[in-house]
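Now read this:
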Amino acid sequence: MEKKKINFSEEERARRGKQEDRRGVRESEARLLEKIEDEFNSRHNVTPRKWTQLKKCWENMKDKWRRTNAEDMRERFATGGGTPPSSEMTDELRRVGDIASHTAVHTCRCTAVADPRHASRRVRWYGSFVFFSLRMF
């Protein structure tokens, strides 16, 4: 004789719903990345790129901004009260910093993509990348 199976608790049902939400977010992220790729490649005088290449370019630019920003901060605090040396930050890196600094602040793990204030960091990144791709490329 088989044992009776235990019903799912309220907590287990709630977690199951979150897993389904994540699946939906992943699908929307994939569609958004394809949209970014299509938008970038639709411009004339650009080499067609895959979304993976665009994402890597964005990551490299953010990394370069972080390194430059950290170097500027070290120089600023190392002056000992004198005038700080001029920054090596270019206009392009300043624009990257304007976008990247806002994406690092949000740590909410909600799945509501419609309102960017309540989006997760990963989804927020894609949102900023759309903004980045419209302004920079």
Notes: The two ends are 67 Å apart (CA to CA). Residues 5 and 29 are 37 Å apart (CA to CA).
